[in-house]
Every structure is written in structure tokens, then in C-alpha cells.
Amino acid sequence: MYPITENALRTERHTTFYLSCGAPDATPLIFVHGWPELAISWRHQLPVFAALGFRCIAPDMRGYGRSSNYARHDDYALEHSVRDMTELLDANGGGKAVWVGHDWGSPVVWSLASHHPDRCLAVANLCVPYLPGGFAPANILPLVDRSVYPESEFPAGQWDYQMYYEENFAAASAAFEANVPNTVKALFRKGSLAGKGQPSRTALVRRDGGWFGGAGHAPAVPRDADVLTEADLGAYVAALTRNGFFGPDSWYMNHARNLAFAQQAHDKGRLSMPVLFLHGAYDYTCETMDSRLAEPMREYCRDLTERVVESGHWMAQENPVAVNAALARFLAAKVPAAWTGSASPRAEG
Q1: Dihedral angle of Cα 66, 69, 75, 81, to the nearest 10 degrees
Q2: Which of 90, 119, 147, 218 is a good FRET partner for 208, with 20 to 30 A between their CA atoms?
Q3: How confident is the model at residue 263 (pLDDT cuts 50, 70, 90)?
Q4: Within 13 Å of residue 12, how many CA atoms lie on the same side as its CB?
Q5: Quick check: 273 and 305 in contact, CB under 8 A?
Q6: Which of 91, 92, 120, 98 has the alpha carbon at shortest distance from 338?
Q7: Domains parsed from the chain with CATH numbers
Q8: Beta 27-32 vs 5-10: how paired, if at all?
Q9: pLDDT at 348 over 90
Q10: CA dihedral 252, 28, 312, 253 (to 10 degrees)
């Protein structure tokens, strides 16, 4: 019904490349990807929700694709991406949007909700729950499931890999860049019930001396056709080969800045707008089914809807039908005015 078009927003501070689909005057529905993805990560959602009456927008986040790249770690702190997103909304009519995030895109969306509630009609996030104090190890480690990750053996639980970035950033990025096609194929794989109750591979990175068992490069594995087509694989590989992993990996290098940013939230971080959270049944890094990781979200979100999707971490790509159905039901129940294309009151300026 509507074509997906390529666009670029250029300001004095940043360039955001983005895909858009849908009627220009409809309610904005903005999809925010995570590591190490692209706007195309939402390829299964854009045309569906455009046909349902939304103006669907999916940007390449800073450090990715055709958006601006930066040479300093601190340029990838959440506060900068939040500003990128408010500028993107301003360029597409202003007012309020429904925001949808995944992986590192989720902390961006949570931050929009906590710092700019006037720009949020509703928010939905996949896999990464809300941590009002900030998405950083200081707030995550106390919530680790110690039945799976005994502290004596796994002091950082499944979040061990985040410490590895801080301690060995160059080596971490080099391992991903050593063979980008193999990296993408190794990362983008569907979830499985078989991993339940077992330590995630992300818990072993420092012990192994690096990603991929310390080999310094990704193994050669077949493409998982349940997650990526050959064309999808080619798009990810081209972008990550062109830009490298410095930008994507730098998102992990701003924990102190992100914690400080979280302290500036409205209403002490409590969220009043409708919130949807989708649990990945087979996501064993962002494990929210059996651990306490989702508890702060339940305390700080006044209007929370939770659903479980039978998938691993790459939920929107692995099980798009379930994701789309859950999001559509949420929008119909919680923000029915959005379906008419009205997201008033609109912000000024």
C-alpha cells in the first residue's frame, strides 16, 4: 500500500538516515534498533503498521549504516541518541510518537519516556526491560539469577561481556571485524528452548579471553534462514564492513554517563504513559522470565502490559507475526486515538 522510502535528516550536530513508510500525516510510530543492527531490522514491521494507519519510521542509529559516525566513545552516550530521536520526530511533524525499541534501542526509548514524556504517546520495548536508575552493570548485576550464574563462578553473570568491552575494547571490536560475514551469521541466530537454564555465551567472554571462545574471529556457521535472508545478510555485512564496530561497540563504553543521565529523569523515573514489554522466551542474555531483571520495570511503570514471544533475542526478525500482533493489540487497547492519525496535543516548536 505504501512504499518504504529512504530519507536523511541533516542538522548541524548530526545526520540521521531513516526509512519511512505510511501516510505523512498519520501518528508517528518510530522503531529504534539495537546492536549491531540497522533500520532494516524493522523490515517486517514497517509495511504492516503503515497499512494499519501509522507513519512508520526506522532510523539507523548513530554509529550505524548511513547515519553519522564519531571517533570518541562518549559521543555514543544515551543522551545524544535521545536528542537524535527528538530531532527526528520534530522533522516528521513534531508532537508525540509511539516509540518501539529493541536491544540498545530499548534504553533509548526508555530514556525518551523518562526524560521526554511529552513526546511519548506510548512506548514498547523488546527484550530489554526498564531500569529507572540506568541500563548499566551497577543496576543489572544485583538482578542476576544466581541459580544459573553462581557468583563464585560468574561474578558478572551473563553481563560479563559488558566488562570485556571496557577492559579490552580494541580486541573486542577486532574480533567482530576479522570476518564480518561470519560475525553476522554467528550473531543473528534464532532462540531455542535447549538453552534454558544454561549459562549464556555472554557469561564466558572474559574467561575465554574474548568473543567466540577467544578465537579472535567468528566461526564459519550457516546463515540462519529463520532470522535472515541472503539479502538481509548482505545489507548488514555491507554496513558493518564500511563503518566497522567502533561506533556500535562504543555504546557499551558509557555506563557512568548513562547513569548520570538517568538521574535527570522526570518524576524520579516513573512512567505514566502506556507501556508494552515483550519478553523473549529464549533470550538467555536479556533473560526476563525467571530472573528479577523485570522487577524494577513493574514497580516504575504505572500502565504496563507484558507479553511473551516465542523467540530468542532477535525477536522482531525471528517471530515478526507474534511481535506485530502483540503491538497491534496494545495500540488498539491503550492508544485507540493513534489509529485515527491523531496524536494531539502536538508539541510546539
Answers
A1: 0
A2: 147
A3: very high
A4: 0
A5: no
A6: 98
A7: 5-340 (3.40.50.1820)
A8: unpaired
A9: no
A10: 0
Q: What is the DSSP letter of 274?
A: -
pLDDT for the residue numbered 1: 79
The set of cell numbers assigned to 46 is: 514497517
DSSP conformation class of 14: -
Q: Which cell is 114 given?
A: 523518562
Closest CA to 121 of 102, 94, 103: 94
- As a whole number of angstroms, the distance between CA 100 and CA 123 comes to 6
Residue 232: strand, helix, or coil: helix
Helices (H), 53-154: 78-91, 105-115, 137-140
Neighbouring CB atoms inside 10 A of 223's CB total 16
297: pLDDT strictly greater than 50:
yes
CA nearest neighbour of 277 among 135, 126, 110, 131: 126
Integer Cα distance of 108 and 120 in angstroms: 12
For the sheet containing 27-32, what is the strand order?
A: 5-10, 15-21, 54-59, 27-32, 97-102, 120-126, 275-280, 304-309
Q: If you search the block for the grid coordinates 558478572, which residue do you land on?
A: 156
Q: How far apart are CA 331 and CA 339, in angstroms?
A: 8
- Whether a cis peptide bond, with omega within 30° of 0, leads into 150 is no
For the beta carbon of residue 306, count every other beta carbon within 10 angstroms.
16
The string of pLDDT tens digits covering residues 214-251 is 999 999 999 999 999 999 999 999 999 999 999 999 99
The answer to whether the beta carbons of residues 166 and 157 sit under 8 Å apart is no
Question: Cα separation of 272 and 269, whole Å?
Answer: 10
Residue 340 pLDDT: 64
Question: pLDDT (tens digit, 9 = 90+) per residue, 112-131?
Answer: 999 999 999 999 999 999 99
Q: Is the pLDDT of residue 104 over 80?
A: yes
d(CA 58, CA 19): 5
pLDDT at 341 over 60: no
**pTM of this prediction exceeds 0.70:** yes
CB atoms within 10 A of CB 138: 12
Confidence of residue 314 (pLDDT cuts 50, 70, 90): very high
